[in-house]
Amino acid sequence: MTAHKLSELGVSNALKSLNSETVSPWVIEDGKLTKLFQFKDFQHAFGFMTMSALYVEKKNHHPEWSNTYNKVKVQLITHDVGGVSEKDFDLAKRMDRFAG
Prior knowledge:
This protein is 44% helix and 21% strand. The protein is of the alpha+beta class. The chain has one domain (8-99): Gyrase A, domain 2 (2-Layer Sandwich). It has a four-stranded antiparallel β-sheet with strand order 1-2-4-3, with helices on one face. Strand 1 and strand 2 (32-38) form a beta hairpin. It is globular, with a radius of gyration of 13 Å. The model has no long low-confidence stretch (mean pLDDT 94).
């Protein structure tokens, strides 16, 4: 999949669509698609990261993320296009499913 940087309107529309299916919203923070996931405990947070890691390695599209106990903060950006792309929204949807 060749990525293209989305326009502000493209990002806004994609965010509305993405957030219509989730309780905890994705936001744009520091120019990156960002979400804080919260899980029951560390084991569930780590399981989410493991499932996500297998998918992102296959797609060769890696998140910026951090984990503190039961929380995982995820930031997505497509570095080679210098912004948020459809690849980021695809990964966000997949991560929402993994967290579900």
